[in-house]
């Protein structure tokens, strides 16, 4: 589900000249913000792209594969310098295990790399105007006191500790204990970040702000900026071959809330939909499908694509898109993208959190299995387009508009 952006040679050629007129921003990400092929990277990519108009960006990020190191060249379109560091799975697991014995959240071990820390330390003499930390796991790289005089801002995106607590409630005894431990320690670390490391902290929605447990001595401004959608990329497509019986779900299929949503839908809704509409197909589009998802292919009317170069054809050709989310928080890119392509949707209340979408015939909010079944059958039998919702999205969810609170915090005049 990769957005493909072509490199602009004139921009690359003038990068050094343009950067002289811009304040310096150190941007630390847990994953490279390119390509924009999963939820957290869609947000970080679009933030980077928008901020590159105002800042000279110096990017540091970890990669999960050596192949991702190749994206350094592409990232130079938006960044003055790029440091990608490969952190292999075996090292992540070893460091996470060590955290179990020293009272630290395993998340910190999973995302720590000495080479990246050394690079961050070397940036201290470049007199950065601001630092943007993307996700709580990257705050550990600016714990040194030297960064206290810099305008440091964090984008938590959503509250990781709250997600681990949700996972614990749905897990077996051993996993539940481990997830509860992670929730407790991460909550403590989130409070430490807000009290000691940053001047402003952002989340993806007002609801996520409410989930963040703020310390009594919190010095940081707490706010939010919603996800946007690239309306030039996600557009309604004409002259497509509509598969009038296809129901599409998009998302990274190794992500627990996505796995849970698909399993819930297949268990509680799919049999009744198939009985009423025998030609219906469920098309699950997303990278790294878990074993439990792959097993669903035993049903010939369930299609598992794995990673695809472009999600748009699957949305354009489907009768409807679904987002029956039962877990997690934040704003769902899958909802914004489907609406931007004028697809009707059946979604849970949780999937619309933070969007404040207007009532529209092309949007059915359904939380029970019965409501979800009825909504899917309605759109299968009565196809429609969400043109009015797309118009609403275009007015309220462009990235240039949504990041304004973040831009204001990074440009804070009281930064030392």
What global shape is seen?
A: globular
Question: In terms of structural class, how would the helical and strand content be classed?
Answer: alpha/beta
| CA gyration radius, whole angstroms | 22 Å
Q: Strand order, biggest sheet? A: 3-2-1-4-5-6-7
Strand content is 15-25%
Which CATH architecture of the largest domain? 3-Layer(aba) Sandwich
For this structure, the CATH topology of the largest domain is Rossmann fold
- Count of DSSP-assigned helices: 19
Query: Which percent range fits the helix content?
Result: 40-55%
Largest sheet: 7 strands, parallel
What would CATH call the class of the largest domain? Answer: Alpha Beta
- Uncertain segments are 1-14
Number of domains: 2
Gap from first CA to last CA: 41 Å
Mean pLDDT level: 89
Please count the beta strands (DSSP E, at least 2 residues each): 13
In brief, what are we looking at here?
This protein has 19 helices and 13 strands. The chain is of the alpha/beta class and 416 residues long. It has 2 domains: 233 residues, Rossmann fold; 154 residues, Glycogen Phosphorylase B (Rossmann fold).
Structural commentary:
- α12 (270-276) runs parallel beside α16.
- The chain folds into two domains: 9-228 and 398-410, Rossmann fold (3-Layer(aba) Sandwich), CATH 3.40.50.11010; 243-396, Glycogen Phosphorylase B (Rossmann fold), CATH 3.40.50.
- It has a seven-stranded parallel beta sheet, sandwiched between helices. Strands 10-9-8-11-12-13 form a six-stranded parallel beta sheet, sandwiched between helices.
- The chain has 19 helices and 13 strands.
- The radius of gyration is 22 Å and the shape is globular.
- The protein has helices spanning 9-13, 15-19, 39-51, 72-75, 89-102, 106-110, 114-122, 160-169, 173-197, 206-211, 256-268, 270-276, 291-294, 312-317, 333-340, 369-381, 387-396, 399-402, 404-410; strands spanning 24-29, 56-63, 81-86, 130-134, 151-157, 200-203, 221-224, 243-250, 281-285, 302-306, 318-323, 345-347, 363-365.
- α10 (206-211) links the parallel β6 (200-203) and β7.
- Helix content is 40%, strand content 17%.
- With 416 residues, the protein is an alpha/beta fold.
């Amino acid at each position: 589900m990769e957005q493909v952006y072509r490199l602009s040679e004139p921009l690359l050629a003038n990068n050094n000249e343009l950067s002289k007129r811009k304040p310096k921003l150190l941007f630390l990400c847990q994953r490279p913000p390119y390509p924009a092929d999963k939820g957290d990277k869609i947000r970080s990519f679009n933030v980077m792209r928008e901020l590159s108009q105002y800042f000279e960006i110096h990017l540091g990020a970890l990669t999960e594969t050596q192949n991702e190191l190749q994206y350094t060249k592409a990232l130079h379109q938006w960044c003055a310098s790029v440091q990608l560091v490969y952190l292999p799975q075996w090292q992540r697991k070893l460091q996470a295990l060590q955290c179990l014995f020293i009272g630290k959240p395993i998340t910190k071990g999973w995302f720590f790399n000495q080479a990246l820390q050394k690079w961050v330390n070397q940036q201290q003499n470049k007199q950065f105007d601001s630092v943007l930390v993307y996700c709580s796991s990257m705050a550990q790289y600016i714990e040194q006191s030297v960064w206290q005089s810099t305008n440091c801002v964090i984008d938590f995106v959503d509250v990781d500790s709250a997600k681990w607590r949700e996972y614990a409630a749905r897990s077996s005894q051993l996993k539940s204990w481990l997830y509860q431990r992670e929730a407790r320690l991460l909550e403590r670390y989130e409070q430490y970040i807000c009290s000691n490391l940053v001047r402003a902290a952002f989340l993806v929605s007002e609801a996520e702000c409410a989930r963040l447990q703020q310390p009594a001595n919190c010095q940081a401004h707490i706010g939010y900026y919603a996800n946007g959608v690239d309306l030039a990329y996600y557009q309604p497509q004409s002259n497509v071959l509509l598969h009038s019986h296809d129901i599409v779900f998009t998302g990274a299929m190794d992500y627990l809330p996505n796995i849970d949503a698909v399993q819930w839908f297949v268990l509680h809704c799919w049999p009744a939909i198939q009985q009423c509409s025998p030609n219906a197909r469920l098309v699950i589009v997303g990278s790294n499908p878990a074993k439990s998802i792959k097993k669903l292919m035993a049903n010939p009317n369930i299609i598992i694509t794995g990673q695809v170069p472009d999600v748009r054809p699957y949305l354009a050709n489907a009768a409807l898109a679904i987002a029956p989310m039962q877990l997690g928080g934040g704003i769902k890119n899958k909802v914004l993208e489907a609406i931007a392509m004028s697809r009707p949707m059946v979604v849970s209340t949780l999937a619309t959190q933070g969007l404040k979408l207007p009532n529209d015939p092309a949007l059915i909010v359904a939380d029970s299995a019965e409501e979800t079944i009825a909504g899917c059958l309605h759109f299968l039998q009565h196809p429609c387009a969400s043109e009015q919702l797309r118009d609403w999205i275009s007015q309220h969810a462009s990235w240039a508009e949504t990041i304004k609170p973040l831009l204001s915090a990074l440009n804070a005049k009281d930064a030392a």
